Amino acid sequence: MRLFKKMWIFNWIYPLLIGTILVLGFLNNAWFEIICAVCAALFWLIQLRLTILLKKGKDIQNKQCKPIGFFMLPPSAGIIAVGVLLIFWPFSVMPVPMTYGTVGISVVLFACLLIQMIILTKDVSLAGRFLRMTLGAAMSVPLSIALTLILYMAKTDEAVTLSCMSVGIFGAAALLISVNIAMVSLCEYKSTRDSIKTISALIKHRKLVFTRITILKDAFLVVSKTSISVISLSFFMFANALYSAGMGVARFYAVRMHNQDRAQQVKSYRFVGIIISSASICYVIYSVRLFGGGKTKPYSMYIALVIALYTFVEFGINICDAFRLRKSKALEAKALRAISLSSTLLCFVLTQTAIMSFASECNNSFANALAGVMFGGLAALVGLYIIVDSFFQKKVSAP
To answer: Is the full-model pTM beyond 0.70?
Structure first.
């Protein structure tokens, strides 16, 4: 009961601080402070719910803590989104006294969250465990506000970039905590390590289901790259979108191999190789034109950073797919590994082109063309290997 009273006191101080930041944001048309305050309010509602559950029994906590991790996803994603918006929207600077006041309120808010975490240190209940993690995720809000306002008050040239990166990191940390809570809830409240083991075992047994989900990832890549190509008016980016579309078709044929007999699998395996080779050769031909005087459209620093971040994420996904299938000798797995490898090779070209477009003021067409030909050629060789191997597999399977 004493613990509950202490937590309840902070749960009334918390909305007063959030409300003050929200009012100051509205008075000064400061969109950054408004969005952060809304995210903080969502975190507070979750904290309030968990504080109430501290008084409940174990069975009720087990039942009602299930959706907590999913409730935390929107405010966590909101912090990441507001960090990205700092690149594209002009930051509304409040008057100096109000700015200092907002920073001070953020510091007090952070202190309140920290004190609550310390108070809950010895609480071993499920609600107490989740509440500590929720408080940790909620710290992303005051940290984002305080650091961003300080950077803009300092009027440094790197204020936008540093603010975007810092807020993005804070939001990503909050998102990881949210995913951790959701994962633990789905795994019957095991520890994080045991939950990861459970999920890994599930993926191994449901490998086909998760492989089919990756087709949706390819569709998302195509839409995203096409959108960036339209925004930046870049045919180079559109060429990468077409390549991703080809890899999506290849992955579709690879997944279909699961329910086919051996002869059909070999044909689908060969077709995957043909798609990879054809798409890669087309990419090489497109890159060769850059040697003849063609140019890749330069990107602004912000667009280039978005592309680089995007391709690093794609690179990580492809590596994870290849690692997950590394021990399988099935034709389906070999086809999927080839698709992941080919996609990874082209990620290097896109990342290099995006970064060099703003890092160097020189004409980088030759370097971009060389990278496109080299990595596209390697991807074409991967497809050629699949085609050759398919004839070998046909001989092996022949009676």
So the answer is: no
